[in-house]
Write a structure and sequence with these properties.
The structure is a single chain. By secondary structure, the chain is an all-alpha fold. The protein has a domain of about 45 residues. The protein has 15 helices and 2 strands. About 25% of the residues are buried.
Length: about 350
């Protein structure tokens, strides 16, 4: 199977190999043998976006019409309308699949939205009890099943998003078994989609959300949660493995930065019984964190630079807002942002426009 790469990367690779061929380092046959393993990613497709938006607008129009007449419909008619709308969308999608694949996909996405709306409407019609998050679980299962059956990447990612809503809305409920099953299926599905970087990102996001849910479910104090995620971020950033390590490094740095920022607040440290005044611990940790981030910034890495800027601004606002004239305060703050923005742009230009150290 050919590996899809961006148009710019494909062009860069081809130009480099052409240069090597012209210098006699490789033959034309070797060049062709290498390039046959790659193909240009189609990128953003205007037609696909257009028909998808059109399908969604049609769906919203239908749902709006149903909602405006909902109170005048009987129970049987309500159910019939939901089933007919969903069935019609699915049928039309499969009917157009061969001749109009983009329109077919748009209708398939519309079907996923109608299916979710139908779940909530069915619950309202028959007065089903329970938490609203159960509806998101059913929605996730349906979309996940279709995405794996049709090998539809967009729906598979959408299922991750629904799962995140389900998990975040269920922190006070016992959903451990469900979340573990979902995580396993998502990982297996990632393999099914050839370990896509974007899917790996959402795989990891769901897994991290499950960790947060478990820590919260077992009433772990916030300070330990922040420390746990700080350590998880470090492990994700430095551990070596073959599963899209650039994505893990990027997410690891984001988690490390967010949790590290939370650990610079003294009130969090004071949750520990043996710490009377958390101010000194928080300041000490903040200094060490800035030193660490600056050591990464020296390697011309962008994400650590972003969190260094946030951390400096956090101390700047917290320390000087009440003591400086407001005009001078905002001028200096603006100069700090401009300075970081200029340096950020320089690094990005030197790196050829790459977003981060892991996205090359």
């Amino acid at each position: 199977m050919k590996k899809r790469i961006s148009k710019s990367s494909y062009k860069f690779l081809l130009n480099e190999l052409m240069g090597h061929k012209d210098k006699g380092i490789i033959t034309e046959q070797q060049l062709n043998d290498i390039m046959i393993s790659y193909e240009e990613d189609s990128g953003i497709n205007f037609i696909k976006i257009l028909v998808t938006i059109g399908a969604v607008l049609i769906g919203l129009g239908i749902l709006s019409f149903i909602a405006s007449n909902w109170t005048y419909m009987g129970r049987f008619l309500k159910v019939a309308v939901i089933i007919a709308t969903l069935g019609g969308s699915i049928f039309t999608s499969f009917k157009l699949e061969k001749d109009y694949p983009k329109t077919s996909k748009a209708l398939l996405y519309l079907s996923a939205l109608i299916y979710g709306a139908g779940i909530f409407l069915m619950g309202q019609i028959f007065n089903f009890g329970g938490e609203f998050t159960q509806s998101f679980l059913l929605w996730t299962i349906g979309v996940l099943s279709v995405s794996l059956l049709l090998k539809e990447k967009t729906l598979f990612i959408f299922a991750h998003m629904l799962a995140l809503v389900y998990i975040n809305g269920s922190f006070n409920q016992n959903i451990i078994i469900y979340t573990i099953i979902l995580a396993v299926i998502f990982y297996i599905g990632n393999k099914y989609f050839n370990f896509s970087k974007l899917i790996t990102f959402f795989n990891t996001a769901v897994a991290l959300n499950i960790v947060l849910y478990l820590l919260n479910y077992f009433d772990i104090e916030d300070i330990y949660i922040s420390i746990a995620f700080f350590l998880i971020g470090l492990v994700m950033y430095y551990i070596k493995h073959g599963l899209n390590p650039d994505i893990f490094k990027l997410q690891g740095m984001i988690i490390l930065g967010i949790s590290g920022l939370s650990l610079t607040f003294d009130s969090l440290w004071e949750e520990l019984s043996f710490i009377g005044n958390g101010k000194y611990v928080a300041i000490g940790f903040g200094i060490l964190l800035i030193i660490y981030l600056l050591s990464l910034v020296r390697k011309r890495l962008l994400t650590p630079l972003l969190f260094t800027c946030i951390l400096i601004l956090r101390y700047y606002f917290d320390t000087l807002y009440d003591f400086m004239p407001k005009s001078l305060f905002f001028i200096i703050g603006g100069l700090i942002l401009l300075g970081f923005g200029h340096y950020f742009e320089r690094i990005r230009k030197d790196r050829g426009g790459d977003l981060d150290e892991g996205i090359n």
